[in-house]
Amino acid sequence: MKTPTAPLKSKTILIPVDNSSQAEEAVRSVQAMSLPERVLLLHTISIPQLAYPGTGMSVGHHFSEAAEKALREEGVRILKKAASLLPPECKEVSQRLEIGIPASVILSMAQDESVDLIIMGSRGLGTIKEHLIGSVSHRVATHASCHVLLVKAPVVPFNSILLPIEQLLDAEWAVEFLSHKPFRGIPHITVLHVIPFAQPILPVGALLPGTWKKALQNGGVHLTKNVTDKLSNLGYSVESLVQTGAPSSVIQRQISNLQPQLVLMGIPGHSPFQRLTHGSVSHATIHHSPCSVLLIREPSPQATA
To answer: pTM of the entire structure?
Structure first.
């Protein structure tokens, strides 16, 4: 079993901010995390470029200059307010004002600054609206190469965490991440493994012999026990659940039953195919979970070399 050699502790946190209450909650969520070495606050502005053919280009140029000045001033105020919401023990805090498309700027800065964790507020766009206009938080969660925390509820200590695991690989990432004690305090963790005997449309489970079902059940029990044992040895309070059904539906049902403050999920792959095959479960969880969601990214090839 190969364990990532690069540390997963959040040494550098990037927090994109605007003037929304969701962005403020994202900043406040730092108090629920272990103290980072560095916090980058980012506000992105888009400068309108207007031209008026009947009156010449100067009107559009002057308008753009005035708009840019106003947006920059507002951006400075937003960044200063965000900085005031951080825990006072955060010593190295940078305020960045950038021009561009928000999702692209966020992803570029995360790459350039070797960010370990992006924390974002999530407005919870509906599925139809997101398909029409896109969601910045969804784009970042899909394409970022680092971990992403989507804050969907007012900040509370992460006392209760639901950890869905699909296989040994994403379980390893979660254990490695949690071994660095990324949260303030020691949360209670429920490890959940779903055996997809049945999907919403096709009853695959009905086609499986009883011996196969039993083998899958035993494998799920063994997997969750392996994870809970490791987390218990790290000092966490842990319990496990092995259930059958459609993974997305089971996860949502357990969120409703357990009322965790956070769902922590491993996201495999850097390739479009890997994102597609596993993305439906994480995508559904991001959309439908009322609580915050922390996506643990697969270590890059450089990190595991």
So the answer is: 0.84
Q: How many CA atoms lie within 13 A of 36 on its CB side?
A: 26
Give the whole-angstrom CA distance, residue 90 versus residue 81: 15
Q: Give the C-alpha separation, 13 to 50, whole Å.
A: 36
Q: Report the alpha-carbon distance of residue 191 to residue 299 in Å, rounded.
A: 21
* Cα–Cα distance for residue pair 243/246, rounded to 1 Å: 10
What tokens does 26 get? 């994202």
Bridge-partner residues for 128, per DSSP?
A: none
141-172 per-position pLDDT tens digit:
989 999 999 999 888 899 999 999 999 989 99
- Residues 227, 12, 75, 107, CA torsion sign: negative
Q: pLDDT for 60-80, tens place per residue? A: 667 778 888 999 999 999 999
Q: Which amino acid is at 80?
A: K
CB-based burial of residue 284 (10 Å sphere; 0-12 exposed, 13-18 middle, 19+ buried)? middle
**Which residue has 């086609």 as its token pair?**
207
Q: Which residues, listed in sequence order, are joined to residue 195 by a DSSP beta bridge?
A: 244
